[in-house]
Amino acid sequence: MFRSVEEVRNEIGKIVGFSPPFRVTQQKVDAFADLTGDYEWIHVDPVRAALGPFGGTIVHGYLTLSLIARFASEVFRLEFESATLNYGLDKVRFPAPLSTGSLVRAKVSFTSITDHPAGSLVAVQYILEAENVSKPVCIADTLLLALSVSDPAR
Predict the structure, then answer these.
(1) Homologous superfamily (CATH) for 5-147
(2) Residue 145, Cβ neighbours under 10 Å: how many?
(3) Which InterPro entries does the UniProt entry name for this protein (predicted)?
């Protein structure tokens, strides 16, 4: 748990931790398809996908990316005096596909802190690793906005 931006600043460039492994099942992929309307066969048709380029279904990129919310809460907590908000993404890449049924985990690092008119921007990098895959399945550079206590927008 980090109680201040200064505590986070001391961890810049270090690995904060690893999330527990999480298995992405076909049921979860199908539920994501239902939610988003993305029914591409490579994600939801195991029979057809078995004959495709990956030998089975693969997880949607945006489902893979959304796991960051889960992994963040499992790896670190920011308990600042004021609120911390999701500010956005700087860069996201999917170097390798995530096969449905695989275990995936995140390696998490704080990469920088910069001033913002409303407080401080904390840059966090997530490298998602899957079992039996040599490349990451996702690399995401994210931004959290730690509001200053005196922020008039609160």
Answers:
(1) Hotdog Thioesterase (3.10.129.10)
(2) 18
(3) HotDog_dom_sf, MaoC-like_dom, NodN-like
